[in-house]
Amino acid sequence: MTANTIFKNHKKQIFPNVPEVFTDGFPKNYRPWIDGWAFSEEQLKSKLSDGTYKLLTLDVSISPDDYVKEVNSGPREEISQRAEEKYQCEIGCRHCFECKTDTNNPLMNFGELKEIMHKAEQLGLESIKFLGPGELLHNPELFKILDYFENEKIKVGIFTKGVILGDDELARKLFSMPAKDFCKKLCNYSCVCLLVGLTSADPETEDQRLQTSIKNFSAKRNRGLENAARLGMNSDPACQRLALICAPVLLDNIDEAFEIFQWGVKRNIPVVLAPTMVSGKGLDMAEINNDNFKSHDLVNLYVDAYSWLIEQGIMTPNQIEKEGVSPYAGIICNQFISGMFIRKDGRIQACPGNESVAFRYCQDIRHDDLKNVWTRSLGYALRKELVETGRMTLTQPCYAKTEGRLVPKGSIAEDFYQLVMAKIKSGR
User: Fold this and answer.
1) Cβ pair 355, 116 in contact under 8 A
2) I want to staple 347 with a disulfide (CB 3.0 to 4.6 A). Which of 201, 252, 343, 428 is the partner?
């Protein structure tokens, strides 16, 4: 048995061979805080010279330009059909929220995205996150895209399954270099933060969530994480540029999610725990309708994570109460009030978590004014109210996934945050 292999019940967990960073305990004032993911209260209160609250972040979807050109050619009313027919992804996540195409808007190319980014910079943009569809790391224009954001000094979080970081065959096929060289070139961009999907350390469980032809997927993903760590992506306690995305947490992986959380934080790799999106294929996840899972299993997972952070001296109960329980268990999230989500066809919605009408802001930003869209958004109105009434907290509930007025049926129970806080305060 190797040092990074653990047998747990019926599962064989194989973690990446990444050494712990904090072998003598966590440094004072340490906090798992993903670079560019969230913003301080001071930043959330910041305004432009005309009094407009700054648009601090954007989630973005974009497809390769060759694919965009092919999809956009031909009759407008058949764009969605062509997008579905020609769409390719080497990974095939069964819970993907962005692979469906349900409008006939032309897809955005990179030139159009840059025009939008220029306008966003004038509104105070500091960071973006690339969500897909498919893998940005598999996009032939990857380094051209990163050159642009590096030059503009905009932080770039990249959601990825990370397999190309450890798969020589795939890296050579797409970029004519071995995986280590590809990873080194990628990590040399100071703007880049890698958000690597790891929902299970058991290869069989992970593989069941994918529809991929890539062999030994988990081993290659683990090798990729090892490559990134060797390049120092998790070496700075004050600037975490490597994170694990343990999402969605479902019945098949909730038994190991807390262990993954601990494993990552000990290595200065923050871990995002989250239930399923209420969008795309996430709508098909049975856990949305499982009240026991939402009000018991998920609550206990978050209590475990927060209690461990308290035990390690990273947080205090008073701090948690002041900040608010995060929808990502200890990882600050205030995206709903600091930014928006631009989809691959120019639509804008609040965030990826919910695609219902209530969260739609714009049908095509190429025919609208970004500042107007931002200032009339739900997130902007809420931020303005919170700041002006003195009720701003560092983290915010997930308005897109939490059941209540805006979300009749979500993946987070309406009283979830109160249940977690009550258990933390009572010591369970």
Assistant:
1) no
2) 343
